[in-house]
TrEMBL record:
<dbReference type="InterPro" id="IPR001881">
    <property type="entry name" value="EGF-like_Ca-bd_dom"/>
</dbReference>
<dbReference type="InterPro" id="IPR000742">
    <property type="entry name" value="EGF"/>
</dbReference>
<dbReference type="Pfam" id="PF07714">
    <property type="entry name" value="PK_Tyr_Ser-Thr"/>
</dbReference>
<keyword id="KW-0732">Signal</keyword>
<dbReference type="InterPro" id="IPR001245">
    <property type="entry name" value="Ser-Thr/Tyr_kinase_cat_dom"/>
</dbReference>
<dbReference type="Pfam" id="PF13947">
    <property type="entry name" value="GUB_WAK_bind"/>
</dbReference>
<dbReference type="GO" id="GO:0030247">
    <property type="term" value="F:polysaccharide binding"/>
</dbReference>
<feature type="domain" description="EGF-like calcium-binding">
    <location>
        <begin position="266"/>
        <end position="309"/>
    </location>
</feature>
<feature type="domain" description="EGF-like calcium-binding">
    <location>
        <begin position="216"/>
        <end position="265"/>
    </location>
</feature>
<keyword id="KW-1015">Disulfide bond</keyword>
<dbReference type="GO" id="GO:0005509">
    <property type="term" value="F:calcium ion binding"/>
</dbReference>
<dbReference type="GO" id="GO:0016020">
    <property type="term" value="C:membrane"/>
</dbReference>
<protein>
    <recommendedName>
        <fullName>EGF-like domain-containing protein</fullName>
    </recommendedName>
</protein>
<feature type="domain" description="EGF-like">
    <location>
        <begin position="269"/>
        <end position="309"/>
    </location>
</feature>
<feature type="domain" description="EGF-like">
    <location>
        <begin position="219"/>
        <end position="265"/>
    </location>
</feature>
<dbReference type="InterPro" id="IPR011009">
    <property type="entry name" value="Kinase-like_dom_sf"/>
</dbReference>
<dbReference type="InterPro" id="IPR018097">
    <property type="entry name" value="EGF_Ca-bd_CS"/>
</dbReference>
């Protein structure tokens, strides 16, 4: 099947209304289609699970995609002759009502010698496509369909009510030793390969046809004005169809069935590296995601983003405390040591790599307990002036580096306190 699918397995997506079946054998039946009464949008979308047919369309269902396409099977038209008269034949009168046979994804195919096929509109009797094979059937090429024994031509437009007719176009009726029939059918592009043996065994075969399906009877901007009849649900977008009606799609960052309430669910891009461009950490959000920076930095951690920069602490009104992407899984002690480094200007490791974070932590805690905060602050911090904000940040740092882990706040609490500090700077 060439029709696109959603990013997750169909079994993980709610496809039908509550209490309704969503499968006919191996075929998924997503709403607005349905099987039982009150399980479909309207009678046009009802699927007979026994015959796989619709009440208002002469097409046998193969599969349905939420992208606005489905595949089905249509009859093959044929005409068989002997040397003097037609022995048997059948034109195909086809109606698909709400579903249009796609001109973009299908072709009219003619198989036979001296054969001609055409499609006529039931409404206007205009010719919608004509395919004619070459008369020289002594030159046949398997796997090629360009005029010798087989010909494919495009449809002029998408159609829903039409007749397919097949006939022989010369007086050589029944004179070919290997072929006395002509066939015509619509088939999905690239889904039919011609072989010379097809001359004798076409009637028992079937080929997929792509049909376009929509909902509503008007364009999006008009349909959206009537909330009662508008079909697209939350976290979705409306897309105008090329002809009549519209389709619903889940908005970017969501997946599922946009025709069902709560049918579009958030995609967790962080669970799949192919869905995010984060260099470091990924934080999922509703309908999107954020890319975090390494601990101690803030900014944009996307591959082609603005980049990450070192965390800064500023006490000046109107400036911001950059706290990076803090989560409950962040290391409270490490964050506390980061604040200590920023406040004191000292690094956890000295130039010779011998000073430990424990030594700096004890030095900081003892200094605060003895009222010596000003003495240990970095010159730049003291230059800006020591106010209540700096004291609160220092106290928060002290709480985070408590030797007894049970006395430390969790990161959720740390973030709440920092958020309050940020608001007080504004």
């Amino acid at each position: 099947m060439i029709l696109s699918r959603t990013k997750v397995a169909e079994s993980q997506i709610v496809q039908s209304l509550p209490g309704c079946s969503d499968r006919c054998g191996n075929i998924t039946i997503p709403y607005p289609f349905g099987i039982e009464d009150d399980c479909y949008l309207s009678k046009d979308y009802q699927v007979n699970c026994t015959t796989l047919m619709f009440p208002t369309a002469s097409v046998k269902l193969l599969d349905i995609s939420l992208d606005g396409f489905m595949r089905g099977v249509l009859p093959i038209t044929y005409a068989c002759y002997n040397s003097t008269y037609q022995l048997s034949g059948s034109d195909s009168w086809i109606w698909t009502e709400k579903f249009l046979v796609s001109s973009e994804k299908n072709v009219l195919t003619t198989v036979g010698c001296d054969s001609r096929a055409d499609i006529m509109s039931m409404d206007t009797e205009d010719s919608l496509a004509i395919g004619t094979t070459r008369s020289k059937c002594n030159r046949l090429y398997d796997e090629l369909c360009f005029g010798y024994g087989c010909k494919q031509v495009p449809l002029f437009e998408s159609i829903s009510k039409f007749r397919i007719r097949s006939q022989t176009k010369t007086g050589k009726l029944g004179k070919w030793s290997f072929n006395n029939c002509s066939y015509a059918f619509i088939v999905q592009k690239d889904q039919y390969t011609f072989y010379e043996t097809d001359f004798d065994n076409m009637l028992n075969r079937s080929f997929p046809v792509v049909l376009e399906w929509t909902v509503g009877g008007d364009k999006c901007k008009y349909s959206q004005k009537n909330k009662t009849t508008y079909i697209c649900k939350e976290n979705s977008v409306c897309i105008d169809a090329a002809y009549v009606g519209y389709n619903c799609r889940c908005a970017q960052g969501y997946e599922g069935n946009a025709y069902l309430p709560n049918g579009c669910q958030d995609i967790n891009e962080c669970e799949n590296e192919a869905l995010n461009d984060c260099i470091y950490g990924c934080v999922n959000t509703n309908g999107s995601y954020n890319c975090s920076c390494p601990f101690g930095q803030s900014g944009d951690g996307r591959e082609h983003g603005s980049g990450c920069s070192n965390l800064e602490v500023s006490k000046s009104p109107g400036k911001t405390i950059y706290i990076g992407m803090l989560t409950e899984k962040s290391d409270v002690y490490s964050f506390g040591m980061l604040l200590v480094e920023l406040l004191t200007g000292r690094k956890v490791f000295s130039n010779d790599g011998t000073e430990s974070d424990l030594g700096l932590a004890m030095f900081f805690v003892l200094s605060l307990e003895r009222g010596g905060l000003i003495q240990i602050l970095d010159d730049q911090v003291k230059k800006d002036g020591v106010d209540e904000h700096i004291k609160l940040i220092a106290k928060l740092a002290k709480d985070c580096i408590e030797l007894k882990g049970k006395k430390r706040p969790n990161m959720k609490r740390v973030k709440e306190e920092l958020d309050q500090l940020i608001q007080s700077f504004i």
